[in-house]
Design a protein that fits this description.
alpha/beta; glycerate kinase, domain 1; Rossmann fold; six-stranded parallel β-sheet; 39% helix; globular
Length: 428
């Protein structure tokens, strides 16, 4: 089977769409909702890029099940990720750097949670991005100090689990502290995972999950990455009051954390669509991490080897997910998927018959307006004609500008879900 460029591009985009559809909150949330008792309040809170769509799914399900009129609450999502809801307030706020809107929403959430009693049910809707959106600094730490540390972590190349360790210990909500505030109410968290390994304590920094990390871990991470730490933060991390609740805390006996969508499920959906299209599939898993450019080069080598060694003409698809990092040294534009893709293209060096797509399932690659990019055999040739040299662009972390110039950005707008990055390499 021969797949030429227009068909290859269309097929890669179809596979990405299949991956996103597998994590649609309208599909994955309703079947996992708890059944409220006849007594008490039903309060919904949440944070993340999918939280508004999750809230809509809750309202739709509650309307069918007869407890819609009992709903109340508030969720916070990224700007442009909101959807209309009737009973649940939707707040849009800054991400990845927290802002005043997120801080106000966090205080509204805490005020609701602090009022809960034993007969009440708290349903938390948690998804990727929630950590930055729940901007409620711990006692003694200012919003400005917390935001500056967050910016420095984003530029440091620190993996998401290390960033979340710090965020938990500087927060009044994260790292299980929301569960503490909700006690003695029943708490059920529904989570869409965007993290390798699906660790609930990492998803949005685990507001209702015991925290296995310590304040000493957080301080060591800040020191290791050379981040300027204000005196208030040092004081917090050196004080026992700055520690997060652990698994042996009795408050968690009344807490249930349920993952409703996972990155590996989106790969399974894409693999099914690919096999239906007649492709052979190699899945590398949904938990790949590391520097984006290093992974891109490694995947290019794998693609070239498969192209050389295959025994027949059946097209091969290499699938992977996870969350890479970018250590920013330049002043250009571009998220981790664009950087991965440009490194892949540079290592492929124009190899014929190899195409690729790399996108974030939330529709936003880094802080840009694209979900990701597509790579074709002539990507380098076209970018050179537009005045770009791939290695120079990588040095400046400016992959977005290159792919924008050659018309190969993938733009979806907010998808209102988030199961991390989707990558597919098609060997025709």
């Amino acid at each position: 089977m021969i797949i030429k460029e227009p068909g290859a591009r269309a097929l890669l985009r179809e596979l990405f769409d299949a991956a996103i559809a597998a994590a649609d909150p309208a599909i994955c949330v309703p079947s996992r909702l708890p059944v409220p008792s006849d007594r008490g309040r039903v309060v919904i809170v949440g944070a993340g890029k999918a939280s508004a769509a999750m809230a809509r799914a809750v309202e739709d399900a509650a309307r069918k099940e007869g407890w819609f009129e009992r709903l109340e609450g508030v969720v916070v999502t990224r700007y442009a990720h909101g959807v209309p809801c009737e009973r649940i307030g939707i707040v849009e706020a800054g991400h990845p750097v927290p802002d005043a809107a997120g801080a106000e929403a966090a205080q509204r959430i805490l005020a609701l949670v602090d009022e809960l009693a034993e007969d009440d049910l708290l349903i938390c809707l948690v998804s990727g991005g929630g950590s930055a959106l729940l901007a409620a600094p711990a006692e003694g730490i200012g919003h400005k100090e917390k935001a500056e540390i967050n910016r420095a972590l984003l530029r440091s190349g620190a993996p998401i689990d290390e960033m979340n360790c710090v965020r938990k210990h500087l927060s009044a909500i994260k790292g299980g502290r929301l569960a503490l505030r909700a006690f003695p109410a029943r708490v059920v968290s529904l989570m869409i995972s965007d993290v390798p390994g699906d660790d609930p304590s990492v998803i949005a920094s685990g507001p209702t999950v015991p925290d296995p990390t310590t304040r000493h871990d957080a301080l060591e991470i800040l020191v290791r990455y050379g981040i300027d730490v204000p005196a208030s933060v040092v004081s917090r991390l050196n004080n026992v009051s700055g520690e997060t609740p652990k698994a042996d805390d009795p408050v968690f006996r009344n807490v249930e954390n349920v993952i409703v969508a996972r990155p590996d499920e989106m790969l399974v959906a894409a693999e099914g669509a690919a096999r239906q299209a007649g492709l052979a599939v190699m899945s590398l898993g949904a938990n790949l991490e590391g520097e984006a450019r290093d992974l891109g080069a490694a995947h290019a080598a794998l693609a070239r080897e498969l192209q050389r060694s295959r025994a027949d003409e059946v097209p091969i698809l290499i699938l992977s997910g996870g969350e890479t990092t970018v250590t920013v040294t330049g002043d250009g534009r571009g998220g981790r998927n664009a950087e991965y893709a440009l490194s892949l293209a540079a290592a492929l060096a124009g190899a014929s018959g190899i195409y690729a797509i790399a996108c974030d399932t939330d529709g936003i690659d880094g802080v840009e307006d694209n979900a990701g990019v597509i790579v074709t055999p002539d990507s380098l040739e076209r970018s050179a004609a537009a005045g770009f040299e791939a290695m120079d662009v990588l040095a400046r972390n400016d992959a977005y500008s290159l792919f924008a110039a050659i018309g190969d950005l993938v733009v979806t707008g907010p998808t209102r879900t988030n199961v991390n990055d989707f990558r597919a390499i098609l060997i025709t």
